[in-house]
TrEMBL record:
One of its GO terms (cellular component) is mitochondrion. It comes from Ephemerocybe angulata. Belongs to the PanB family. InterPro entries: Pantoate_hydroxy_MeTrfase (IPR003700), Pyrv/PenolPyrv_kinase-like_dom (IPR015813), Pyrv_kinase-like_dom_sf (IPR040442). This is 3-methyl-2-oxobutanoate hydroxymethyltransferase.
């Protein structure tokens, strides 16, 4: 809320500033070309045209739960992307087409270098979520509840979810699990916390499941997925992630539910899609699951930039003395050297 009041006020201030500078432009150009009708003034882009988040404002109102249900009713695909810090949050907010920013517990692997998500703590999640909140504008902000933060009891789950709301300022939480966590989902929803469910492949259970495997490939497993999905919807989840299931099952579960499904490796017929930011930008050089598409190859661009910088330092072509460093008044420099000489130093 605060963020939005502040950015609203900022927009008004920007508009006023633009109007003032527009008036100046008109006066100048009429004087120069007396008989020529002044062109429509175009305010020069300046640092004042970026908002408090250091990037141009994106024309999109805050995404709410009701935005998502109307998108679902109109069958407009929902886009969700993960973010882990301030710059990645800004990246997610840079297009009006992002609907949800998720602080995924993939944070453990792609940012903290841990071997799996199970080691991530709630404190680490809160620390990163606070940074993501600062860089998020219109997308609905959802944070994963780390492994262990919601399994002990519904009460503990509620206390921990409240920490994410109050300390990290996220708007909703996501929990992995099926019908067994429905009472916990209900408890959170009853307290006023929007909950996103996560069914199918549940990476937090990779140890007990002996790896990351496609789910719902047997009659029993596919039926369990539908049972879980319905139980979580009934418990009040506003949406569910569906991970790594056959595309037919992704479509079927979407048709059975009223709430939107956000697929990852669940085929093209879910209500929306989610990918890990580092996977889609091509900055993650670890394991690439079958469902990952690289929409950019930033790793090569990034590493080439790092190499060029280091090379330029080595060969002393950086920094350029004229354009990339500062000057001092020669008379001041002269006096400085004289003073130094008096003290027995200098050149
Ligand atoms: N970078 C990254 N991207 C992710 O999507 C992701 C993470 N990290 N970390 C947390 C979880 C782990 N996830 C994973 C991890 C591995 C597979 C995987 O290797 N799946 C196999 C399925 C093989 C099969 O059963 O047929 C694959 O080959 O796609 C899937 C999802 C999704 N999440
Ligand atoms: C991949 C998404 C759905 C996730 O849960 C994560 O980033 O941890």
């Amino acid at each position: 809320m605060l963020l939005h009041c502040a950015s609203g006020r900022h927009t008004t201030m920007l508009a006023a500033a633009a109007a003032r500078s527009a008036t100046r432009t008109v006066t100048v150009s009429t004087r120069r070309h007396m008989s020529v009708r002044p062109e429509e003034p175009k305010p020069k882009p300046s640092s004042a045209d970026t908002n408090a988040l250091n990037q141009p404002p994106v024309p999109r109102k805050k995404v709410t739960l009701s935005t998502l249900s109307s998108m679902n009713a109109k069958k407009t695909p929902i886009t969700m992307i993960t973010a882990y810090d301030y710059p990645t949050a800004l990246a997610c907010s840079s297009t009006p087409l992002t609907d949800i920013t998720l602080i995924g517990d993939s944070l453990a692997q792609v940012c903290l270098g841990l071997p799996s998500t199970t080691q991530l703590t709630l404190d680490e999640m809160i620390h990163h979520s606070r940074a993501v909140t600062r860089g998020t504008t219109h997308p609905l902000l959802v944070a994963d509840m780390p492994f262990g933060s919601y399994q002990v009891s519904s009460e503990r789950a509620l206390l921990n979810a409240l920490r994410l709301i109050k300390e990290a300022h996220v708007e909703a939480v996501k929990l992995e699990g099926g019908a067994e966590i429905a009472p916990t989902v209900r408890r959170l929803v009853d307290a006023g916390i929007p909950v996103m469910a996560h069914i199918g492949l549940q990476p937090q259970k990779h140890t007990s499941l002996s790896g990351y495997k496609v789910q719902g490939r047997s009659v029993e497993s596919a039926r369990r997925l539908i049972h879980d999905a319905l139980a979580l919807q009934e418990a009040g989840a506003f949406s569910t992630v569906v991970e790594a299931v056959p595309r037919e099952l992704g479509k079927y579960v979407t048709e059975q539910l009223k709430i939107p499904t956000i697929g990852i490796g669940a085929g093209p017929w879910t209500s929306g899609q989610v990918l890990v930011l580092n996977d889609l930008l091509g900055t993650w050089s670890g394991h690439k699951a079958k469902f990952v598409r690289r929409f950019a190859n930033l790793k090569d661009v990034r590493d080439a930039g790092i190499h060029k910088y280091a090379e330029a330092v080595r060969d002393q072509s950086f920094p350029d003395p004229e354009t990339e460093s500062y000057t001092i008044d020669p008379r001041v420099w002269e006096r400085f050297l004289e003073a130094e000489q008096k003290d027995g130093r200098g050149i």
